[in-house]
Amino acid sequence: MNQEEKIKQFIENIYSNSQYNFNDSRYPEVTLTYAQTLDGFISGKPNTPPLLISGKESMLMTHCLRNKNEAIMIGIGTVLNDNPQLNVRQLTGFNNGGNVHNPQPVILDSKLRFPLDCKLLKNYREYKSKIEQKVEGYEKLTEIKPPIIFVNENQYDKTKAEILINYNVEINILKNDNNNNNNNNNNGSSLDITKVLSILKSKYNIHSVMVEGGAQVIRTFLVNASLIQHIIITIGPFFIGNGVKAVGDTIEKSELSETSESLPRLENTQSFTLGQDIIIIGQPVLSS
Ligand SMILES: NC(=O)C1=CN([C@@H]2O[C@H](COP(=O)(O)OP(=O)(O)OC[C@H]3O[C@@H](n4cnc5c(N)ncnc54)[C@H](O)[C@@H]3O)[C@@H](O)[C@H]2O)C=CC1
Ligand SMILES: Nc1nc(O)c(N)c(N[C@@H]2O[C@H](COP(=O)(O)O)[C@@H](O)[C@H]2O)n1
């Protein structure tokens, strides 16, 4: 077995040992995963170029996780800062007829700041055009899905939404409920994450979601930890001194949701090194 096959096998085991039962839940199976430095940062200061924390082996693990999960969720802050692709391009068989799949991108974007020239849209449009024109090798391309975006009612530009809908982007409009439990210091523009997850399950039949960040989204899930089934953290073996902290400086008790009265601890933990990085895996549990 090569390294990619070993990582895929390892990831299979994580999910096959999971207690999660899709039929019993209103939500998809959620994996919160991100990479941080030894001093707890997930990126450099805001508006600086994306910080590569994962080494090549743990990045391969991230691509295997993307391949395993049906959807990948990020916040608009990450789209704007990193312009990510969120595909599985490091896996064998990518765009070559292999048995790999790109996850469905899901973006939390209350005010619809989604840039029309971002890679997520550009890659999708290029893929679609190649399929429609049947360019050579088109049958072997790995499918790219247009993003699903969640916005807050009354906070988004309807004209921009129309443009995106014409590009096959799905826009889901949520009622802005300031009493939701997603406190994350973003001035009342936070989407109700339980609604987002239940729509992903009921409307799109999505079974599994990998939540990749950024900081505000990680925080939202940690204060609603009953929604998470797995946490997988890559620790890069270096310090950077400052930047964006994975969970911010402090989380107040008042931020915790009704269903998650504490921040989680991990059970069934596993840790190992991948290249020079340390991987920590566990299932979050809440103390009562
Ligand atoms: N090292 C890693 O694994 C990763 C690092 N990052 C880094 O994270 C940084 C971006 O983080 P942030 O600025 O915090 O942006 P973010 O990606 O967490 O997006 C936050 C935005 O999402 C929207 N949003 C709507 N509903 C929300 C909800 N319920 N909870 C949270 N956000 C909601 C709001 O507009 C909010 O401003 C970037 O620098 C990026 O490089 C991002 C992903 C992974
Ligand atoms: N696993 C991981 N390790 C790092 O060091 C990272 N900086 C990230 N960032 C996440 O990956 C996205 C970029 O994805 P593409 O390479 O463009 O497909 C970035 O936006 C973060 O979500 N992840």
Automatic annotation (TrEMBL):
<dbReference type="GO" id="GO:0009231">
    <property type="term" value="P:riboflavin biosynthetic process"/>
</dbReference>
<dbReference type="GO" id="GO:0008703">
    <property type="term" value="F:5-amino-6-(5-phosphoribosylamino)uracil reductase activity"/>
</dbReference>
<keyword id="KW-0521">NADP</keyword>
<keyword id="KW-0560">Oxidoreductase</keyword>
<keyword id="KW-0686">Riboflavin biosynthesis</keyword>
<dbReference type="InterPro" id="IPR024072">
    <property type="entry name" value="DHFR-like_dom_sf"/>
</dbReference>
<dbReference type="Pfam" id="PF01872">
    <property type="entry name" value="RibD_C"/>
</dbReference>
<comment type="similarity">
    <text>Belongs to the HTP reductase family.</text>
</comment>
<dbReference type="InterPro" id="IPR050765">
    <property type="entry name" value="Riboflavin_Biosynth_HTPR"/>
</dbReference>
<protein>
    <recommendedName>
        <fullName>2,5-diamino-6-ribosylamino-4(3H)-pyrimidinone 5'-phosphate reductase</fullName>
        <ecNumber>1.1.1.302</ecNumber>
    </recommendedName>
</protein>
<comment type="pathway">
    <text>Cofactor biosynthesis; riboflavin biosynthesis.</text>
</comment>
<dbReference type="InterPro" id="IPR002734">
    <property type="entry name" value="RibDG_C"/>
</dbReference>
<feature type="domain" description="Bacterial bifunctional deaminase-reductase C-terminal">
    <location>
        <begin position="28"/>
        <end position="279"/>
    </location>
</feature>
<comment type="function">
    <text>Catalyzes an early step in riboflavin biosynthesis, the NADPH-dependent reduction of the ribose side chain of 2,5-diamino-6-ribosylamino-4(3H)-pyrimidinone 5'-phosphate, yielding 2,5-diamino-6-ribitylamino-4(3H)-pyrimidinone 5'-phosphate.</text>
</comment>
